[in-house]
Design brief:
About 35% of the residues lie in helices and about 25% in strands. Strand 5 and strand 6 form a beta hairpin. The longest helix has 23 residues.
């Protein structure tokens, strides 16, 4: 039994959905298919959520109509009629009904209620199209059997209960193909949760772990794991094989090819992860496994845009020692801000993190006891397996705010 995961780029238009069907038809084994929201739907739903939460009905209506028309255009091309997908109509009506109600005061709770509709819509359209094409496929609602706690926007999986419920759900008694959603989970009270941005990869790994899958394949718009994002580094090269450890390192530093939490459950059961191109499905792609024979010595370049680089200094001129570090890190954790880089000296603590809606609240609290200096709109460049040529290539002619070197990793904050 295999797990296939198709992301938003694979499903961004009708041709993508047809291509997905072709890939699945060429698979003879039992299959669980995980889908993300189509195209940039998650971004659109985040805009809709902000308008809903902040009581901006005009922006809400404009973006809701854009979202509806985007999906209707795909449906019309797939079915010949905008009314062709009853599943879409049901899910979109559900979204519209939610948006008519007054939001709670809990942003993260509302995020999971609203943004989760993207995956429900996507899977509904795909399921209806598969039925139209007479593919024997069973649609399932993952919120009913992937169980989590109530940490909205980054829920923690109840592994024992989830494994038990998945084995009851994916029996393959009446179908050889199941279709479900990535990114989503559900609490014991059946409230919707999400697993973290881009969490559909993680979903595929959770299912692979619970079902003891033969392997997991993530279908991307790139030929495999590359040593850089080709959208900003045109000389990117494919890495054929990686160990779990090296892949974890890359995701930790921000490589976008897979979600950071994906590797641990697969490593636990030694399940290989394939990263393949949905544009060229016959190509070998990349394999992440327990193999320690890595076949590459390429520098790996990772770019994170829209960063804030902050330096914090105690007002009482005290040293940044264990107590102060624990205090500072706990404040970051309070606002759920993850640091992509951190370093402390005798009197300063520096960190780099993604621009966040909680940034000003973070700074306001820090300013009670610390001086806070920061640069916004910076970039963080990380080079794994760096050499002097790679460092020169990434930094030449640029304004460096900070640099950090370890044995295998070099990091630069650039204005």
């Amino acid at each position: 039994m295999k797990i296939y995961k198709f992301g938003g780029a694979a499903l961004k238009d009708a041709d993508g959905v047809r291509n997905m069907l072709s890939i699945i038809k060429n698979t003879s084994e039992q299959l669980i298919v995980v889908v993300s929201a189509m195209g940039k739907t998650t971004n659109s739903l985040e805009t809709i959520l902000d308008a809903y939460f902040n009581n901006n009905p005009q922006t809400l209506e404009i973006n809701l109509n854009k979202l509806k028309n985007y999906h209707l255009s795909i449906i019309k091309e797939l079915f010949g009629d905008e009314q062709g997908s009853s599943g879409f109509l049901e899910q979109f009506r559900f979204l519209e009904d939610k948006l008519k109600k007054t939001p709670s005061m809990h942003y993260d709770f509302e995020y999971d209620r609203i943004v989760s509709i993207g995956e429900m819509i996507s899977s509904a359209i795909v399921a209806d199209f598969f039925n139209k094409e007479q593919l024997n496929c069973k649609w399932t609602d993952i919120k009913t059997f992937l169980k989590t706690d109530e940490q909205y926007r980054e829920a923690n999986v109840d592994w024992d209960l989830t494994t038990k419920m998945m084995k009851k759900t994916f029996t393959f008694k009446d179908t050889s193909i199941y279709l479900t959603q990535g990114f989503l989970g559900g609490t014991l009270s059946n409230l919707t949760t999400t697993l973290g941005r881009e969490g559909s990869d993680y979903t595929a790994a959770i299912i692979g772990y619970a079902m003891d899958a033969k392997d997991v394949t993530i279908w991307k718009d790139v030929p495999g794991v590359l040593n850089a994002d080709p959208k900003w580094y045109p000389n990117a090269q494919k890495i054929d094989n990686l160990s779990y450890q090296e892949a974890v390192e890359l995701t930790y530093y921000g490589a976008q090819v897979i979600h950071p939490k994906t590797l641990k459950p697969l490593k636990t059961k030694n399940i290989p992860l394939h990263v393949k191109s949905f544009l060229n499905p016959e190509a070998p792609g990349s394999v992440i496994s327990s193999s320690k024979n890595r076949n590459f010595l390429l520098p790996v370049f990772i770019l994170k845009r829209n960063q804030i680089f902050v330096t914090i200094s105690p007002k009482d001129f005290s040293f940044i020692i264990e107590e102060k570090l624990i205090e500072i890190i706990s404040i970051f954790k309070q606002f759920r801000i993850k640091m992509n880089l951190m370093e402390n000296s005798a009197l300063n603590f520096s960190a780099c993190f993604d621009i966040n809606r909680n940034t000003e609240m973070l700074f306001d609290l820090l300013r009670k006891d610390y001086f806070v200096l920061y640069n916004d709109d910076t970039q963080l460049i990380t080079i794994r397996q760096y050499n002097s040529e790679a460092v020169d290539e990434m930094t030449k002619g640029k304004t460096l705010l900070y640099s950090q070197f370890t044995r295998k990793t070099a990091m630069f904050v650039i204005k």
